[in-house]
Amino acid sequence: MVDDDPTVSNVVSAYLTKAGYDARVVADGVAAVEVWQQWKPSVVVLDVMLPGLSGLEVLRRVWGWDFGDSSTVTVHVRRLREKIEADPSDPRLVLTVPRTG
């Protein structure tokens, strides 16, 4: 669980623990990359708006890593509309999708 909001991370990690997962919580993108590198989780719940590295930058850094069995990543953004309206030029709010074909 990667989220800088302790309320969100506590609720989600409690749910994951109850579901039988070994839930670990980090609050920023740099820590997420470090933990991901050492631990190789099977499920990651990743906030997009994080201090340090954004959730999208975290994904860019781990994209080519070998995880053996596949990892599932769920990306979430709380209050996205308010964040875009507050600063529409914030580069962390821009999703870059690679072109295919």
Automatic annotation (TrEMBL):
One Gene Ontology MF term: transcription cis-regulatory region binding
Record keywords: DNA-binding, Phosphoprotein, Transcription, Transcription regulation
Domain Response regulatory: 1-101
4-aspartylphosphate found at: D47
GO cellular component entries: cytosol; protein-DNA complex
GO terms, biological process: regulation of DNA-templated transcription
DNA-binding region(s) from the entry: 59-101
Domain of life from the UniProt record: Bacteria
InterPro entries: CheY-like_superfamily (IPR011006), OmpR/PhoB-type_DNA-bd (IPR001867), Sig_transdc_resp-reg_C-effctor (IPR016032), Sig_transdc_resp-reg_receiver (IPR001789), WalR-like (IPR039420), WH-like_DNA-bd_sf (IPR036388)
Domain annotation OmpR/PhoB-type: ranges: 59-101
PANTHER family, sorted: DNA-BINDING DUAL TRANSCRIPTIONAL REGULATOR OMPR, REGULATOR OF RPOS
Name the UniProt record assigns to this protein: Transcriptional regulator
Organism: Kribbella steppae
